[in-house]
Amino acid sequence: MRRRQSYDTVKESRELRFQDPFIPLAPKAFVKLVKNKAYYKRFQTKYRRRREGKTDYQARKALVTQAKNKYNSPKYRLVVRITNKDIIAQIVYAKIQGDVVLSSAYSHELPRYGVKVGLTNWSAAYCTGLLVARRVLTQLGLADKYEGNTTIDGTYYEVEAEDDAPRPFQCFLDVGLRRTTTGSRVFGVLKGAVDGGLKIPHSENRFPGWDTSAKQLDAETLRKYIVGGHVSEYMAELEEDDEDSYKRQFAKYIEEEITPDDFEEMYEKAHEAIRENPEREAKVHEYDDAAKAALKKFKTQKRNLKQRQDRIKQKKAAWLAKRAAAADDE
What we know:
By secondary structure, the protein is α+β, with helices and mostly antiparallel strands. The chain is 43% helix and 9% strand. The chain has a four-stranded mixed beta sheet. It has a two-stranded antiparallel sheet with strand order 5-6.
């Protein structure tokens, strides 16, 4: 059955026929109605963070759901997030009201331990994982009982329960929306946390140095990444091949007088310093008189009723005086 043409289409066609009587009337194209009334009646709005593309709820459900026979015991997650200038590692558990952060560590804290540059590379990720592990175990009083792997040789390590101590602190890796490719920095944080004494279920097939054909891990390659050997090699190669690129890409290293031979010692000292004192340093706020005055500026005392009424009278009087002055000038 032929559809009825809209008024505008018919009008336009008639105008064309008036100009040229041999142009036939243009029939309206058939448009399939895809989203009908039934679609909109059954449409279910997705969660806000899914609409924003921030949360993978299928992965979150698996990481958050706790076994019924464990009652109200929290299920901890090692949440790793990597930005352009920082690496964030947090020990988190979920409640009805929202997620609660038990402890956290950031790569921007590493200058305190001797790593002043390269705060987002694989070696810095390892240091951040080690820091969050030692910090949360110190917080829970388990640091002396579970020291973790003190010999950094790149071999596979998993913490074992002690007979005369509580069970090791267990959590699960939460990578968010990041791709879990072999050699990813999220696994650098994982390796650091495991060597720091946390029990995190994992395998070695995502660490740098994993041989897919031989199905085994090259421990020497992994150790090289932990102590910054991959950056050191590239730095030495670039210095030799292209000095301009070397000065541009490693300007911060040159400013701190860090050479390719200094990497291993720098990261080994950082690991020792983290183990000695993983606790967060309290931030001291020092204000001069001008800053204190600026702070007090926004902390005025609340006026009572009499003061508010008097202020209104003063404003009225000032306005009337201004109006009278303007009238006298005229």
